[in-house]
């Protein structure tokens, strides 16, 4: 995993809300003041899994597909009086903020697996989660789109698509959802379906809309291809493991800024041998310098509150099915984006 420079350990009082969250409980996760680290309240099982992940040699291959883990923090300061008895028991994990390196991060959260409940679920919750899997794409395909954001080229602001969209999709419509996350510049067929983070409602089907999404084909193709290769490798790493990841997600982020995406792709495919030298050059603490150019995309597993090692029980077939579904969807997106490009002018306008 290519490493990025991270800030010093977080201290009380310099936290701020995470602004790039596309799924889960909004407002719960925080970042350090510079945005490089993520602070997330975690259940004991998630804390334990991250700790095991650092030590268990059988999980070394999987570790590179998870956010860098820097340790834990205990809750400090005032809490809601009704929850005062929990203050000493609430632990937060400190992780790298995967979106930090990007100028305009397009972010997709995909819930993996066909089983949505763990061994602690009550009969009522088990029945509810089984129905949820059946009523959404999870049961048949092993994935559910839980939310994503795509940057508008014209305004340089992200447009977020909420979990209600993913829940509404049928299995045969998943390709449409992936196309909305990987839009090709100049094509309006698969525009995002929600308003910006301000909550403003926008009719994206309006032909007079000034919104503009997507990368040109020469940038989109290598990014989608690279993401596909990462998911293939992740599946190979995950397949022999005896583990159950319930409600874990596959997080995919790629650069939506055209210039930065082009530069990042060049570094990723051509200049990997120079990475060590460039890391040494970036040790300067001058905050006025522009953010270091990072990867053009990242693929990581996240959310391990219901993850367990299960020796002797074999591989996690539901999650493996989900990964295979993602690979097939990416293959389909690569094929269709090339066809869409045939009808595009191929121009590279100045977006300012």
Automatic annotation (TrEMBL):
<dbReference type="InterPro" id="IPR038286">
    <property type="entry name" value="IPK_sf"/>
</dbReference>
<keyword id="KW-0808">Transferase</keyword>
<dbReference type="GO" id="GO:0005737">
    <property type="term" value="C:cytoplasm"/>
</dbReference>
<dbReference type="GO" id="GO:0046854">
    <property type="term" value="P:phosphatidylinositol phosphate biosynthetic process"/>
</dbReference>
<protein>
    <recommendedName>
        <fullName>Kinase</fullName>
        <ecNumber>2.7.-.-</ecNumber>
    </recommendedName>
</protein>
<dbReference type="GO" id="GO:0008440">
    <property type="term" value="F:inositol-1,4,5-trisphosphate 3-kinase activity"/>
</dbReference>
<dbReference type="GO" id="GO:0005634">
    <property type="term" value="C:nucleus"/>
</dbReference>
<feature type="compositionally biased region" description="Acidic residues">
    <location>
        <begin position="271"/>
        <end position="287"/>
    </location>
</feature>
<feature type="region of interest" description="Disordered">
    <location>
        <begin position="270"/>
        <end position="291"/>
    </location>
</feature>
<dbReference type="GO" id="GO:0000824">
    <property type="term" value="F:inositol-1,4,5,6-tetrakisphosphate 3-kinase activity"/>
</dbReference>
<dbReference type="Pfam" id="PF03770">
    <property type="entry name" value="IPK"/>
</dbReference>
<dbReference type="GO" id="GO:0032958">
    <property type="term" value="P:inositol phosphate biosynthetic process"/>
</dbReference>
<keyword id="KW-0418">Kinase</keyword>
<dbReference type="InterPro" id="IPR005522">
    <property type="entry name" value="IPK"/>
</dbReference>
<comment type="similarity">
    <text>Belongs to the inositol phosphokinase (IPK) family.</text>
</comment>
